[in-house]
């Protein structure tokens, strides 16, 4: 079950409670589902009970208790716990969660390519396309919102704003960038770079400016060009290239990726699934907080998890490709897809070969 599907499941639980007379509220248009915060547990959490408490005239935990059995009966849900003032923490069946996550990432990627390649020659979506998957991590959270970004004449501010235009668009919003003159209010002012990053080249220069938090002074050094593990940019791009290499190697062995069960005892699998599941939250946080560094750091976390997992994907020795290998390959391909998409949002290339 993907976050999008789980959001619909939460709304169905609310609708069931209303239909059965347990709650007297208007069913919301959207239910927010995110990875659990501090003190939470499970795979995902929702604050829907807190959202409905006032209109229902009940304490949030009481609303959560009403919704819990409706959620627990859903196929693919292993259990539901209530934490804090009334957060519903949802445990998914491991195999179901992984399969759905990988499928959502890969289907969204395929759909994005279909639209980009002119699938709808009229330049607009046809009626059936509204039901096709959207690129992974894209949400309508900021739909209709215009985000003004007023920046000084500074290279780092320019690069941060340029990335935010794309990041905000993934959440349905539109960022409008404008420069300010002396004395005018600034809405985006990251700490300037100590020197011109251009000698690093386009990709490394952008990473040097985007990876640190806005309040941190970026380091403009040749370390960003080093092809070694100590360089986060290299690890992200290398992980993407390795994912593509695994697909090519699998093709030569006569098999392809298929979403399937990847047991948590496979080295690196559990962490990789968790980091991929957290990507939409990192993307929405980057948009809401005007912080592309949130996205950059999450890409590093995904890359590190993938690099620990990659060695399990291909058959070893005389081993024949099996359903397990196809499932692991699909998970690796999902990781590569997310890494490429995230780098693209930052304006950084993701080569297939390094």
Regarding quaternary structure, what we see is single chain
Poorly predicted regions: 114-131
- Compute the separation of the termini in Å: 34 Å
Structural class: alpha+beta
- Number of DSSP-assigned strands: 6
Strand order of the largest sheet: 1-2-4-3
**Biggest sheet, open or closed, and with what strands and sense?**
4 strands, antiparallel
Mean pLDDT: 90
Topology:
Blueprint: H1 3-19, E1 33-34, E2 44-46, H2 48-56, H3 60-72, E3 77-83, E4 87-92, H4 94-116, E5 146-151, H5 155-170, E6 174-179, H6 202-210, H7 232-252, H8 269-277, H9 279-288, H10 292-309, H11 323-345
Parallel strand pairs: 5-6
Antiparallel strand pairs: 1-2, 2-4, 3-4
């Amino acid at each position: 079950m993907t976050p999008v599907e789980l959001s619909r499941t939460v709304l169905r639980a609310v609708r069931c409670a209303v239909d059965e007379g347990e709650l007297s509220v208007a069913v919301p248009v959207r239910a927010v589902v995110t990875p659990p915060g501090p003190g939470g547990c499970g795979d995902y959490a929702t604050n829907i009970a807190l959202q409905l408490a006032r209109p229902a005239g009940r304490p949030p935990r009481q609303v959560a208790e009403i919704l819990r059995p409706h959620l627990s009966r859903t196929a693919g849900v292993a259990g539901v716990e209530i934490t804090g003032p009334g957060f519903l923490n949802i445990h998914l069946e491991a195999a179901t969660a992984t399969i759905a996550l990988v499928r959502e990432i890969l289907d969204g990627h395929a759909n994005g390519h279909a639209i980009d390649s002119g699938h709808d020659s009229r330049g607009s979506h046809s009626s059936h396309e509204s039901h096709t998957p959207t690129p992974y991590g894209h949400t309508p959270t900021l739909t209709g919102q215009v985000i003004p970004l007023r920046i000084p004449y500074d290279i780092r501010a320019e690069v941060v704003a340029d990335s935010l235009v794309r990041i905000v668009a993934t959440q349905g919003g539109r960022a409008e960038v404008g420069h300010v003159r002396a004395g005018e209010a600034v809405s985006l002012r990251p700490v300037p770079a100590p020197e011109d990053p251009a000698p690093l080249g386009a990709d490394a220069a952008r990473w040097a400016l985007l990876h640190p938090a806005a309040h941190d002074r970026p380091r403009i050094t040749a370390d960003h060009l080093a092809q070694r593990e100590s360089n986060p940019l290299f690890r992200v791009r290398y992980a993407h290239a390795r994912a593509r290499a695994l697909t090519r190697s699998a093709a030569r062995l006569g098999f392809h990726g298929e979403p399937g069960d990847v047991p948590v005892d496979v080295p690196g699998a559990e962490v990789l699934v968790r980091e991929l599941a957290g990507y939409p939250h990192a993307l929405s946080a980057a948009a809401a907080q005007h912080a592309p560094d949130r996205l950059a750091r999450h890409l590093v976390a995904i890359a590190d998890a993938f690099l620990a997992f990659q060695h399990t994907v291909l058959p070893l020795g005389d081993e024949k490709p099996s359903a397990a290998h196809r499932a692991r390959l699909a998970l690796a391909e999902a990781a590569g897809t997310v890494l490429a998409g995230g780098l693209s949002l930052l304006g950084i290339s993701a080569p297939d070969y390094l």
